[in-house]
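Section 3.1: Structural characterization of target chains.
Under the original work plan, the team committed to producing a structural model for every single-chain target entering the pipeline before any wet-lab resources were allocated. The record below documents one such target. The sequence was received from the expression subgroup and is listed exactly as submitted; it comprises 317 residues.
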Amino acid sequence: MTRLKPWTSWALTAAGVYSLAWAAAAALEPGAMQNLLGLGPVQPAVIWFGLLGALALGGSALLIAAWDPSRYWPLILLSGVAKTASFAAALILFGQHGLALRGVIVSSLHDLVWAIVLGAVLLAVHEATLGRRRCVSSDILDLALRTRTNVGVSLEELSRLSPVLLVFLRHSGCMFCRESLSDLAHKRKEIEANGTRLVLVHMGTEEQGNRLFARYGLDQETRIDDPRRTLYRAFGLPRATIGMFLSPRLWARTFQAAVLGGNRMGRLTGDLFQMPGAFLLYYGQLVRCYRHQNPSDRPDYMALVLGTSYAAEEFRG
């Protein structure tokens, strides 16, 4: 299971302590703080102290969230929104009401920087949540293994005859999907020589699968047509995030797969965001997994078959 990194709690603690310290200093020396922000005396004073009370409340909320960011993520979200709104208000005051430039600079350090930090924490919480959702329930897996292949035999039945390398593909127009098919075509004989049966899962119809796999000489391989992605979900394969598509790693792999490997983009068939994966099954049990951490991952299928490679640390053991 993916664990949340310790830095998230440290960042929330720092943000909470900073907010409380700022509120305390502004309450003790309101004139100095108002001058630092480029404001005149705020009247009535209750408005100023009301703002400081809200800041202190937000700092306290962040300290609470630091205990368990995954549980208290709404507090982090509200604090991030509040800091973003505060910075936006400073920009409006600067443009329309003559707020001093130093007020905008202070606001950027006080609000914008921390809003970015809180956004990074929320992203980390989201990624950790996705990791937990990738874990496969044994009950769901038992049901999934009853899925019948195109030869009329279920996955469980096949796995009792021999080990099964179950490969989930991305959408058929994806260059990484085509790269995977090319890799499997080259490794097919080696996979079979080790007594393992290859089963392909794709998001298209039977006709679309016939056309796609025939290009790589894999049209005779056992497969499952899963246009509704039921089996993908049953095996805990998530959808990709926007951040994955923006990562430098993906763009470097795009160049490698498309330009160097000659795998061109094709017509989209299936869910653009659906992540792929590979599983080794034997006697109705999940023996090993390769769960892609990025759509561009290129697994070593033979290493998976032989038990010498895993996708990520949380799937070892």
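Residues 101-133 form the longest helix (33 residues).
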